[in-house]
Specification:
The structure holds two protein chains of two kinds.
Chain A (H helix, E strand, L loop, with lengths): L1 H23 L1 E4 L10 H6 L1 H4 L3 E11 L6 E5 L6 E5 L15 E13 L1 H15 L14 E14 L1
Parallel strand pairs in A: 4-6
Antiparallel strand pairs in A: 1-6, 2-3, 2-5, 3-4, 5-6
Chain B lengths: L1 H24 L8 E9 L8 H11 L8 E6 L2 E6 L2 E6 L4 E9 L3 H8 L5 H22 L11 H8 L2 H10 L1
Antiparallel strand pairs in B: 1-5, 2-3, 3-4, 4-5
Helix pairs in contact in B: 1-3, 1-4
Classes of the chains: A alpha+beta, B alpha+beta.
């Protein structure tokens, strides 16, 4: 009888911890350490103020790198805005089925000025990865553009 | 005996790692874990402008009963509806819809998960033990055969030939 009680208690403990893990989502890369979240809109509004700073952002994953799972795009708190969360190839691999799920992600903001050629090359690569080359509009890349992204260190994808 | 028994133990993982290795090696040509299919349908254009109205109308046009787990508007004329395994990209003014279905490849998905150690935790240890077993197999394998076909004869030449790919990489590809 004692054995059954102990087994039931252990099973309940495992179930509880599994539920807790599911609520916390799946972890990728390093553990999240920051206590405060930064709105993505704040980063995009004034990127230079965040250049080199570690931030934690939250939002819906709206795109995942189809080829290697090496980046995700996270929707901003403001309409029509996203930020790219880029991780080192193979270090973190985001699954394609993460699309539409909420992510908590931590990393360092990087701001780079891209020449129009670099911007177009990057856009072509991204369109190839997304399989949307047919929709590629080269007229969007007629001048140099500012590229703001987060160099990703760790993330948690919530179910 | 050690070589034989460790060899038997390593068979299953070696097959899984080898198949997954080939699959992952060609990652530039295909996604080894997922099959993504894109199909196109056309529905009536959507004139709604408020986010909730856009989602409801798009669901109605696409005859979707369940609400999406989330949605996003990348620009004013596109909405994306995210369902488990399927994303609908709706071009509002034209009603053109790209239906993107993502399905994991049976067996290969699991093999790749093991190979790339997505689970972390205990699998890191299991993978380390497996790697040590391979190391043991490689070293003990050198001495399994004695005589002219062993490491003092033909085996030495073949072992040296096995270094050629590494030398090629060092000289030409590094």
């Amino acid at each position: 009888m004692t054995f059954i009680k102990t087994a039931l208690a252990a099973a309940a403990l495992v179930a509880l911890s599994t539920t807790n893990m599911q609520a916390q989502g799946k972890a990728y890369g390093k553990q999240l350490t920051l206590k405060e979240k930064t709105p993505i809109s704040a980063i995009l509004k004034n990127p230079h103020a965040f250049h080199g700073k570690r931030v934690q952002v939250e939002g819906t994953i709206v795109e995942v790198c189809e080829e290697r799972g090496c980046w995700i795009k996270i929707a901003s708190d403001q309409p029509f805005e996203t930020i790219r969360f880029k991780v080192d190839d193979g270090v973190i691999v985001f699954p394609l089925d993460a699309k539409g799920k909420k992510a908590l992600a931590e990393g360092v903001v990087t701001v780079n000025m891209l020449t129009k050629e670099q911007a177009m090359k990057q856009a072509i690569e991204m369109h190839k990865e997304r399989g949307t080359m047919a929709k590629f509009d080269s007229t969007k890349y007629m001048k140099d553009v500012m590229d703001v992204q987060i160099k990703g260190e760790g993330a948690r994808v919530l179910e | 005996m050690l070589h034989r028994d460790v060899g038997y133990l390593a068979v299953a993982l070696t097959i899984a790692y080898a198949i997954s290795g080939i699959a992952v090696n060609h990652i530039a040509d295909w996604n080894p874990s997922y099959r993504v299919t894109k199909t196109f349908v056309t529905v009536a254009p959507i004139a709604a402008t408020d986010p909730n109205g856009i989602i409801t109308t798009a669901m109605d046009r696409l005859q979707l009963v369940e609400r999406p787990r989330s949605s996003f508007q990348p620009d004013s004329h596109t909405v994306q509806l995210f369902y488990k395994g399927t994303t609908y990209h709706v071009d509002l003014p034209t009603g053109k819809v790209m239906v993107e279905a993502t399905r994991s490849r049976p067996v290969l998905f699991e093999m790749n998960q093991l190979h790339l150690n997505h689970s972390k935790r205990a699998w890191t240890w299991i993978a380390d033990i497996y790697a040590l077993a391979l190391l043991l197999l490689a070293i003990t394998g050198l001495f399994v055969i004695k005589g002219r076909y062993g490491i003092t004869g033909r085996g030495a030449w073949l072992t040296a030939a096995g270094v050629v790919p590494i030398a090629y990489w060092l000289v030409y590809l590094k």
